Amino acid sequence: MSLEKFKEEIKASYSYSGRSVMLGGAVYDKKAVAGTAINMPLSTVNRHGLIAGATGTGKTKSIQRFAESLSEQGVGVLLMDIKGDVSGISKAGVANEKIIERMRLIEAEWSPCEYPTELMTISNENGLRLRATVSEFGPVLFSKILELNDNQEGAVAIIFKYCDDKKLPLLDIKDFRAVLQHISEGEGKKEVEQNYGSISPATSGVIMRKLLELEIQGGDKFFGEKSFEVEDLLLKDNQGRGQISIIRLTDIQDRPKLFSTFMLCLLAEIYSKFPEIGDKKEPKLVVFIDEAHLIFKEASSALLQQIETIIKLIRSKGVGIYFCTQAPTDIPDIILSQLGTKIQHALRAFTAKDRKDIKLVAENFPVTDYYNTDQLITELGIGEAIVTVLNEKGSPTPLVHTMMCAPRSRMDVLTPDEIEMKVASSPLARIYNEEIDRVSAYEILKQKMEVPEQVAEPLENRKAHERETERASDISDTIRSIAKSNVTKMVVREVTRGLLGVLIGKPVRSTRRRY
Fold first, then answer.
1. What is the 3-state secondary structure (H, E, C) of 108-133?
2. What pLDDT, in 10s, does the model give residues 222-265?
3. Nearest to 303 by CA among 469, 153, 429, 407
């Protein structure tokens, strides 16, 4: 195929009437082709996507520039920062020869720029603390997080219903545990069995163990108040740029269940809170989930089903979700089939399995007459990718070898001091980092157990006092009775006489000795 025909096809496929995001420039026969900007319609960004590639191939920088472009057009961005290498987006980049040459080749402008960012955390990292209450999860989602079976899920539903009826707020894990103990072992057991159904000791034990497992992974830090309001992800600065919210997750890579729990809750909350907008011309929020394989690493079939449902439905809320991982095979096929945009960086074929996986990856892209796709995937340079997106009509664009745009912000991490200053200056962080531990199910049930003891103690004291009073009264009556008797009068008279006789009837000798 000729170069001219290639240019015509690329221009026709990647030029749009509406607003778009520039991803890079086309490459043909290993050379950048002038006048072939690879654009993505802003109206199809909410059709979800995949950004994949081996370590060191530049996929994180592609995510960074993609996020910058969305922010520039007023779209909110939520970034999951597992490795800690995108926080630099809040600081302006520094020009160098490689950046200048790259942008010259693809005929794109470049200037350093910093973007409005908010650093967030669900663990021990420094940042705005994200929390959610157990009640906000609801019985179904909370059961799926704990990976419970149908019988155990029914027990969780009983707990939620009991708490609703008894006005017991379920805010954190200790609340849930206290209620479970109360209705399975304590005073509430009989009442629950009569009105809701029984919970077997085995079921209660399983749920207790699952709660402990979730706590070990850090769930106790995530559940509680103050709950994060997802509408705060849509804030804009005074220039109209969308806020880039970066959730710092560098210390939970070995806790996939907490990560899955958080992501599922956040997406469910976004879906429930955001209004239905249909096929709007531009998205409201785009979520980038880096190291996405952690979500699916230990996900049950129920959890996968829940994620699939949210992925299918959340698009109509104006939200796009982009999974970022090393290989597309990290993403379950049922989820992969929902992703319209694919940005594939280089993969390395070191083993027979690698070559087989690369062949499967190549088959997921549209057929092309310009490239040998499975070979090209292994030959891509740093900052280069195979790209296909959905055009304005929702149809896949032809596969194209793309030299990706360089980020305008810092391509490095923030220092600890910079992070500290960033968080300290955030009005949102001051609001959400305030610790709140209001009276909830745990405190109410604890107080209920303590009150009978406090009441019983004064009651026992009163009874003892009454007994002492009665005993004293009896003694007084006895004394008065004895005092009035003739015998007593005689004894008293004789005793008195005896004493007076000792003191008066006999002379008192001096005890002083003479010397």
1. CCCCCCCCCEEEEECCCCCCEECCEC
2. 888 888 999 999 999 999 999 999 998 877 766 766 777 778 88
3. 153
Angle (deg, nearest 10), helices 173-184 and 188-195: 80
Judge residue 425's burial from the number of C-beta atoms within 10 Å of its C-beta, 0-12 exposed, 13-18 middle, 19 or more buried: exposed
Residue keyed to tokens 């002492």: 468
* Backbone region of residue 96 per phi and psi (left: phi > 0; alpha: psi in -120 to 50; beta: other values): beta
* 199 residue type, one letter: I
pTM equals 0.80
**Nearest CA-CA partner of 76 in 316, 241, 296:** 241
Amino acid at 245: S
| CA gap 1, 142 in Å, rounded | 56
Q: What is the pLDDT of residues 53-93, one digit of tens each?
A: 998 999 999 999 999 999 999 999 999 988 888 999 999 99
Q: Is the dihedral of CA 292, 295, 298, 299 positive or negative?
A: negative
Instruction: Give me the helix-helix angle, 134-145 and 256-273, nearest 10°.
Output: 130
DSSP string covering 381-446, please? -TTEEEEE-B-TTSPBPPPEEEEEPPPSB-SSPPPHHHHHHHHHT-HHHHHHTS-B----HHHHHH
Question: What sections of 94-230 are H helices per DSSP?
Answer: 97-105, 134-145, 150-165, 173-184, 188-195, 201-216, 219-222
Three-state SS at 140: helix
Return the pLDDT at 327.
Answer: 87
Nearest to 135 by CA among 167, 176, 171: 171
